[in-house]
Amino acid sequence: MTTEAPPKKEEPKKEEESFLSLFVHNLWSANTVTVTFLSILLALVIGAVLIVVSDSEVLATFSYFTARPSDALTASWDLISRAYADLFKGAIFDPAAVSAWFNGTGDWQTALNPLSETLTYAAPLVFTGLSVALAFRGGLFNIGGQGQAVIGCVTAGVAGFAIGLPAGLHLVVALAAGLIGGALWGFVPGLLKARTGAHEVITTIMLNYTATLFLGWLILQNGVQDPDRTDAISKTIDSTAGLPALPAPLRVHFGIVLAVLVTAGVAWLVNRSSFGFELRAVGVNPPAAKTAGMSVGRTYIMLMVVAGGLAGLGGATQVLGTADRLTDQVAGNIGFDGLLVALLGRNKPWGTLFAAILYGGLRAGGNLMQVDVGISLELVTVLQALIVIFIAAPALVKAIFQLRDARTARLGASMAKGW
């Protein structure tokens, strides 16, 4: 007697994931874009708490929170929404000003002024950020962007008022002077690193102080100091050496265009040139690069020269575009801010460009927040620091939002099959 085998149960076919589900899955994964966006979101949330805590009137409504919670919540929301609305209006555009421009009751200068301020603040930061990012890719920590930018300001500024040349040529000479000044200031720590092994962090920090003190001494000397002034300020830079700019009151100038062009050049240098291959190899493993026949010392020197030249060009952009003369604070903190911009941009050229624009937007919007809402500019600095902290600690962001590891191979395979 034969018994029939029980029929096999057909296993349900596993449905292939659609392209949309794969896209959403990969979007909510621990990739660079997602972590950066969530870092900014976390910084804004913590910033909102600090905004409420810093306002005594709003904070007073929490004393009777259990009796009337709506008062505290409404007051907090009004303050936060006004503050962040001003941040947007001061950094990108004011909808009311744009509407007035289109209606004929306003002008285009007022409508574009916020974006102009953002790009004005961002232009020099692109150069100093690229300087730091490029050094990072080669395994060096260039803390000397501030000193290199100061020397760039000095050489470009002196060339701007001490040399009489026709328009156009004068600007090129002044920009070249800033680039060369910064490159020479970067050459010193690069040479010391290559020849003696001196750590670039120590040497560049010391050179920062040297550059700042040299600037303070120079602007008080005869031939440099404005003869009509008694304070520490130089002569006015000739108009022939100034960067072309939009009509007043807009301050944005050709420096932002130059920054985009230099970013494209640095991206090519890092990713396409033989020098870029060498610096990346040295940055990853100097002994292996030396074994492969690369000169590690020569690469360090060239890397610091290029990084210093970029920072010097940032200083030249600052003095020839935003300022029109040398002062002891002409460079501001563009070198130190470049460190944060490079971190925010993940040490990549195009990422650095967008990070500088974001940083400039926070600065421009923070000015309006300070005037309109009464929030201190230091709080905007805290926002910038929080963004950098979260981006510098991606593991923390992944843990907070429980992000999965990126699985781009699945998405790529689905796209290759035509999904």
Automatic annotation (TrEMBL):
Cell compartments where the protein resides: Cell membrane
Topology of this chain in the membrane: Multi-pass membrane protein
Keywords: Cell membrane, Membrane, Transmembrane, Transmembrane helix
Keyword presence, Cell membrane: yes
Family matches, as CDD domains: TM_PBP1_transp_TpRbsC_like
Transmembrane segments: 28-53, 118-136, 148-165, 171-192, 201-220, 252-270, 300-320, 379-401
Protein name as annotated: ABC transporter permease
Organism lineage string: Bacteria, Bacillati, Actinomycetota, Actinomycetes, Micromonosporales
